[in-house]
Amino acid sequence: MLGIGENPERPGLKDTPRRVAEMYRELFSGVDCNPIEELAVGFEESYRDLVALRGIPFHSMCEHHLVPFFGTADVGYIPNGRVVGVSKIVRVLEILAHRPQIQERLTTEIAETLYGGLEATGVAVVLKAEHLCMSMRGVQKPGTQVVTSVVRGIFPQFSASDNKIRDLLEGF
To answer: Is 62 a catalytic residue?
Structure first.
């Protein structure tokens, strides 16, 4: 507060350091969590086609400016004899997003956690997000979306004419 010329003792700011520390504990709650543990409980299943979750809302904190970026995640995998409850996929996203992040690394970490943790035949992850570090400061272009994608396993072998895959990867 002193660095921006504010009086940290004034009534509206007196408890701000404590509130910010509590907020950061919540926003960075994924730092000490292992997302692979979310995938430990699964089910043997002969299903070997695409399982996809579309439009999962998420938020994270840019590690460069400590301001949020937020958007949606599309995540799909092709099981190799084992599936998990779909909420487990969302939990993997949440754990990884609740760390100081950059979107590119977050996309990769989600894909690699699911690919390895599920021993999936293929994984595809697409994140679309607005970065407040770009909307509120710097170039100040609100509404701009950053799109990142990662595929692992069999996905690159699919034809662009495969409707299930094309629909999941829409936005590339």
So the answer is: yes
User: What pTM value is reported for the model?
Assistant: 0.89
Among 38, 94, 101, 103, the active-site one is 103
Q: Mean pLDDT, to the nearest integer, of 132-147?
A: 91
Torsion angle of alpha carbons 71, 76, 151, 72, nearest 10°?
0
pLDDT tens digits along 4-26: 999 999 999 999 999 999 999 99
Catalytic, out of 6, 22, 37, 64: 64
Q: What is the pLDDT of residue 154?
A: 87
> What's the rounded Cα separation, in Å, for the pair 111 and 49?
17
